[in-house]
Design a protein that fits this description.
Elements: E1 3-7, H1 12-32, H2 66-77, E2 80-85, E3 88-93, H3 96-103, E4 109-112, E5 117-120, H4 121-136, H5 154-183, H6 191-198, H7 203-234, H8 236-250, H9 264-277, E6 286-287, E7 292-294, E8 297-299, E9 304-305, H10 309-313, H11 356-373, E10 374-378, E11 388-389, E12 394-395, E13 399-405
Helix pairs in contact: 1-4, 1-7, 4-5, 4-7, 7-9, 7-11, 8-9
Bound molecules: protoporphyrin IX containing FE.
GO cellular component, one term: chloroplast outer membrane
Organism: Setaria viridis
Main location: membrane
């Protein structure tokens, strides 16, 4: 049975992506922050994997696939255990149930005092992501004439300050909801609990750290996945190739992140989508701090610099037929599969995207699952509907596709 559906409508799917992205961001950042296990060695601590004095379990983890060692240990020590990596202890979680407990449940609504009402998941996403993104592309003419910065621009200021106020109110409400959970004695091993336990952060720092993970992960990943599905629905022969690859590697298993290294065409689909549809088309502006020579031109200190990632990714000198969506271009042996910077989509240099791996994991798993379950066909006449809106390249026109279940057993 085939039915025409508007795939990934902004709202539900976006909120879902935000939730997934947010949770994964939390997990990744918690990892980066060095989230460590309980310091007390009381009887209720998770079992410890025996290791050597001083270095702990480091020698047992020296091979490149720690997740396999972790899984093996789980058979002996259970779904949650502690390992010692040198001087610190790390708690390893190996079951979905424990991991969900640690990462927290999906937030479905929250009471916002400033609004005097409970708001839904969609409204949370609107206030914390969509509206803030729209603000980022508001133009303040005073930016172009800094010597007139003293002139009020009331409509701009009101719009930006109101949006920021709403974002702050919603984020505060979300954080307070979690504080109450902790006060009820339901503390978890999670990014937010870790930040709250720090006790050294101001409320504003805390809010920004949590919000950053949401704003950077949600929309970018959603947009990439949606463009990939547009191209896949538009190119049946490439969709077949992807489906065949998934079938060969996964057979009847559901695609998970563990399969991704064995799915090179999927990887190429992801990177080609990033190239062709650069989700963040312009990098946040940089200031040139010193007189600089760039491409043999002199650039004086104080100049603002905008890098057009879309332009880099569509440059005819670098890419053969850049207008075409051709995942095969990444399989000609010139690119490393694991290289996240095949294109400029994640930026470059010291401020390059901190979540590129996470974005790949979320987006590739979603694309593969969509293709594993359904045959995708674009609505007739929509082939050229590739216009975009907003700061990230959201589709101007909703994506309409015919989905036919593949009837996987
Ligand atoms: C396909 C999805 C994504 C794309 C295309 C993307 C792209 C970018 C780009 C272009 C930048 C600016 C780089 C620069 O200024 O040079 C950036 C920064 C950043 N991204 Fe992503 N991003 C994605 C997903 C994510 C995810 C899932 C996270 C996870 C939290 C994330 C976290 C960040 C952070 C923290 C920064 C700021 C890095 C810094 O300023 O030092 N991104 N991203």
């Amino acid at each position: 049975m085939e039915s025409l559906v508007a795939a990934l409508p902004l709202g539900g799917a976006a909120a879902a992506a935000a939730a997934v992205g947010g949770l994964l961001a939390a997990a990744a950042l918690a990892g980066r922050a060095g989230l460590v296990g309980p310091k007390n060695n009381g009887s209720n601590a998770p079992p410890a994997v025996p290791g050597l004095p001083l270095i702990g379990n480091l020698l047992q983890l020296k091979e490149k696939k720690p997740h396999q060692t972790f899984t093996k240990w789980a058979e002996t020590y259970g779904p949650i255990y502690t390992i010692k990596t040198g001087a610190s202890s790390v708690v390893v979680l190996n079951s979905t149930q424990v991991a969900k407990e640690a990462l927290g449940e999906d937030v479905s609504s929250v009471y916002v005092e400033e609004f005097g009402k409970v708001i839904s998941k969609e409204e949370i996403y609107q206030a914390t992501v969509v509206d803030m993104m729209m603000c980022a592309i508001e133009v303040d003419w005073r930016d172009f004439f800094p010597y007139l910065s003293w002139v009020p621009n009331r409509s701009f200021e009101t719009r930006v300050l109101t949006t920021e106020g709403r974002r702050t109110a919603v984020m505060r409400a979300l954080i307070d909801q979690q504080r109450k959970r902790i006060a009820r004695g339901e503390a978890r091993i999670s990014y937010l609990d870790f930040l709250l336990a720090e006790n050294t952060l101001t409320d504003e720092q805390l809010l920004m750290l949590v919000w950053e993970a949401v704003i950077e992960a949600a929309d970018t990943t959603l947009v990439t996945t949606e463009w990939a599905m547009f191209e896949i629905a538009k190119h049946p022969e490439k969709q077949d190739r992807l489906y065949q690859e998934i079938q060969e590697v996964c057979s009847n298993e559901i695609v998970t992140e563990d399969h991704l290294p064995r799915l090179p065409y999927l990887n190429a689909v992801f990177h080609e989508t990033l190239r062709r549809h650069s989700p963040v088309p312009l990098v946040p502006p940089r200031f040139v701090h010193e007189n600089t020579n760039l491409a043999s031109y002199d650039i004086p200190a104080g100049t603002e610099m905008i890098i057009n990632l879309f332009g880099c990714n569509m440059n005819k000198r670098d890419w053969d037929e850049p207008e075409e969506w051709k995942p095969e271009r990444f399989l000609d042996g010139r690119f490393e599969s694991a290289d996240m910077y095949k294109t400029m989509a994640f930026g470059a240099g010291r401020r390059a995207c901190a979540g590129s791996m996470q974005a790949m994991n979320i987006s590739c798993t979603a694309i593969a699952r969509f293709v594993q379950e359904f045959t995708w066909r674009l609505k007739e006449g929509d082939e050229e509907k590739a216009d975009t809106i907003q700061l990230t390249t959201n589709r101007l026109y909703p994506l309409y596709v015919y989905l036919t279940p593949r009837g996987r057993k």
